[in-house]
Amino acid sequence: MPENSIHVQSLTKRFGETLALDDVSFDVARGELFGFIGPDGAGKTTLFRILTTLLLADKGICNVEGLDVVKDYRKIRRISGYMPGKFSLYQDLTVEENLKFFATIFGTTIRENYSLVKDIYQQIEPFKNRKAGKLSGGMKQKLALSCAMIHKPEVLFLDEPTTGVDAVSRLEFWQMLNRLKESGITILVSTPYMDEAGQCDRVALMQNGRIMTISTPNEVIRNYPLSLFSVKSGDIYQLLSELRLYPGVHSVYAFGQSAHVSFNDRNIEKEILSDFLKKNHHESVSITPIEATIEDCFMELMNTPAKEKTT
Length: 311
Fold this sequence. Notes:
By secondary structure, the chain is α/β, with parallel strands linked by helices. The protein has two domains: 218 residues, Rossmann fold; 67 residues, 2-Layer Sandwich (Alpha-Beta Plaits). 32% of the residues lie in helices and 28% in strands. The chain has ten helices and 14 strands. The protein has a six-stranded mixed beta sheet with strand order 6-7-8-3-9-10, with helices on both faces. Helix 3 packs parallel to helix 5 and helix 4 packs antiparallel against helix 5. The radius of gyration is 23 Å and the shape is globular.
């Protein structure tokens, strides 16, 4: 068996003038929960469609469990589970009918592999006679995952599976992924939500078809090179403008009702910054040193010159 579950080297894909994937390379170990984090348009869906044999790359090497995505596409489809970003099950079929249909396609039955989807399916089994189109977002998500798992795949591809669902369903979904990981399944998941990165063994931060960095979530945060503060005042919009004028500021971004401000100098005097803001008529000023989040790291990488980025 190959050492890695997934091997991708110099993968490139264009759609006309748009470069969707730009020389992408990475490996995913067997049994790893690997995340692709990035905004819409970063190239995550294109990458997943190539890995699941639904789209041909322009150039590059792409193997799943040692199988070539072009030559061995039939074998890859038998050992892979795919949950696309858009709900794609049959909305006029019931929950149970959808699951039976996908089991039949792969030459198995619900009974044969029920133990694999039991923890997920039990949550929607009370609604097994309800049409899939009438389910809530979280329930649709659980049904789609059950259908992707019913044939006992070796590799599971989940393309933005939590987009558009509530916070509780997102949390439950990631708990389910961690349970699936314990069974030895390799899981690749893409998401635009930076907070979900911490649930992965490793993450690849993507932007404009390129991988900016690959590391563990803790290492990504640990490598953040700047001094970072959370700053609040009564007028967030005016605050952002004033902070960008402050000497030594590296970047300023809005995070909810506060601003995350980074400095190249790690010896920033909070009192001097506070006096600056008060002189500019800001009230109720609060300045707190903070640790970087994945999102802070992503924003910094976006503004790092391409030659300084490593994958």
